Amino acid sequence: MNHCDTTSLLSYDEALTQLTDAITALASPVDKALLETLGAVLAESIESAIDVPTCAMSSMDGYAINTADLATSGVTTLPLSQRIAAGSAADALVTGTAARIFTGAPVPEGADAVIMQEQVDAVDHQIRFDARPASGSNIRPPGNDIRRGTTILNKGCRLRPQDIGLAASVGLQTLPVFSAIKVGMFFTGDELVEPGQALVAGKIYDSNRYTLHGLLESMGCEIIDLGLVGDTLAATRDAMLRASTQADLVVTSGGVSVGEEDHVRIAIEQLGELRLWRLGIKPGKPLAYGQINDTAFIGLPGNPVSVFATFCLFVCPVIRIMQGCGWRKPVALPVKADFDWSRPDSRREFLRARLVTTKDNQTLVQIHPNQDSGVLTSTVWADGFVEIPENQTVQAGEMVNYLPFAQFF
């Protein structure tokens, strides 16, 4: 058992490095049908076995012609020799004729251009026009989208609807993906009650369970929800053991500080290995990382905003690494501040913020007026964090680092 020093604060960068260095990918690829892969992580890179399109295709409704048959000037008249609809086969184009063709239909051999129907007069099985399309006009060549042998999807990507559509476009029925990470979660605090129950004096509704459930679901995790756990050491130990036998990762909120009712920290020390981080960040100073048997554990603070912030900053990297996505630290965007921050703190601060556009088309960043860690409305109002380095103030008009929430997920 590793008892860490709790008398000093670990910096954000140090804590993040320790945490990400301790986590490895859980590589267990499975083949899934395309329609079941949304949000899953691709287990290997995918190459196309075909050209897309496989043959030259018309990008317009019109007429396939050979530009060598055009009159040198004036009106050209060509008889129609065939009609080619999308999905049908085409005969070779007879010299000196045109073929009626529709969008997505194969261009017949011998044709090198498609003239749009709007540029043509069609009468009695022949067409008349004075346009002079260049060779290749309105034709999509073979491989216009994808060339055979090219990589279309990279290992570690989280599959989006457009990725799944791309796989379908090259004829794939299944994709190799990593199986979902199983995350066990439970919550401590005798003051908590479930939504829908009556509130009595001293009680509050448990929002953390629902925030964490949504965050985990959005990252494609399989959730093992043990719900509320009584504020006793025995109940906490029992919940930890049950979660650790079912999950790849256990995440909790509350009980990781040093108070008499903070049983999570003590339970981890008794059951496994603990690294208790008192972090030099705000919000979210108390955070624990450890291990129960072979299962990783992260204990988040109990305040609602601290749960959201520390999940973004620390749990997201852990899950991405476990899923095989790989992880890179989010790239801060330099944006001009539309606020003053005159209260320097010895901890690095992550202020709830959002971007705004001024009448003169400037992009500025605002912060929520109440940065208290219990103000959950600030996370709904915001679309990112402003990162304030240790012991730093900000004046309106200065450049600050902005981290969109979307970068973490």
Structure report:
The protein has about 400 residues and is an alpha/beta fold. It folds into four domains: about 10-30 and about 180-325, 3-Layer(aba) Sandwich (Molybdenum Cofactor Biosythetic Enzyme, Chain A); about 30-50 and about 145-180, Molybdopterin biosynthesis moea protein, domain 2; about 55-140, Molybdopterin biosynthesis moea protein, domain 3 (Molybdopterin biosynthesis moeA protein, domain 3), CATH 2.170.190.11; about 335-409, MoeA, C-terminal, domain IV (Beta-clip), CATH 2.40.340. It contains eight helices and 27 strands. The strands form seven sheets. Strands 8-5-7-6-10-9 form a six-stranded mixed beta sheet, with no helix packed on it. Strands 17-14-18-22-21-19 form a six-stranded mixed beta sheet, sandwiched between helices. A hairpin with a 2-residue loop joins strand 21 and strand 22. Helix 4 (about 235-245) crosses helix 5. The longest helix has 20 residues, at about 305-325. The radius of gyration is 30 Å and the shape is elongated. The two termini are about 30 Å apart. Residues about 1-5 have low confidence and may be disordered.
